[in-house]
Amino acid sequence: MRIAMRRTSSRRLRRAAFTLLEVMLVLVILAAIAGIAVVNLGGIQDRANIRLTKTTIAGLKTAMETYRMEVGSYPTQLNDLHEQPSDLADPDKWLQLRKDPIENDPWGNAFTYTNSGADFEIRSNGPDGQAGTDDDISSKKEA
Fold it and tell me: Strands 137-138 and 120-124, how do they pair?
């Protein structure tokens, strides 16, 4: 009778633990779920950065128009919205429109600014950081 009890309790102990196969299966399932979550959440960050860039460009565009109304022309560089340029014909017309200097876009690249005199463009190279690609964000494009 003692031998039968030992076998029964020995079997119970072995069945109470997980096998290596069961543990590995759970790990594979968790890794697959984590992979799907990372892929889906990665797109959320990109979309948020694109929205932030469009909003920043829209704010700069408004500041540019205000600058033109106050000074009579568009600024020669973006930083003129923050610091008074030394070459203004009438420095008394200048108005500080940005409390802080212009920061880089969310991908760490500087905004580019071109001024043709009658018009201007503010541009971010977008997520890929390359100028002239489809993901560029511009003040000329519909926001």
Answer: antiparallel
CA atoms within a 13 Å half-sphere pointing along the CA-CB vector of 122: 28
Q: Which structure tokens are listed for 59?
A: 């704010």
CATH number of 38-138: 3.30.700.10
Give just the sign of the alpha carbon dihedral 15, 21, 24, 26. negative
| Residue 47, CB-side half-sphere exposure with 13 Å CA sphere | 5
Q: Cα-atom radius of gyration of the chain, to the nearest Å?
A: 30
Burial 50-82 (b: 16+ CB within 10 A, else e): beebbebbeebbebbeebeeebeebbeebebbb
Summarize pLDDT for 13-23 with one digit per residue, the tens: 556 788 888 89
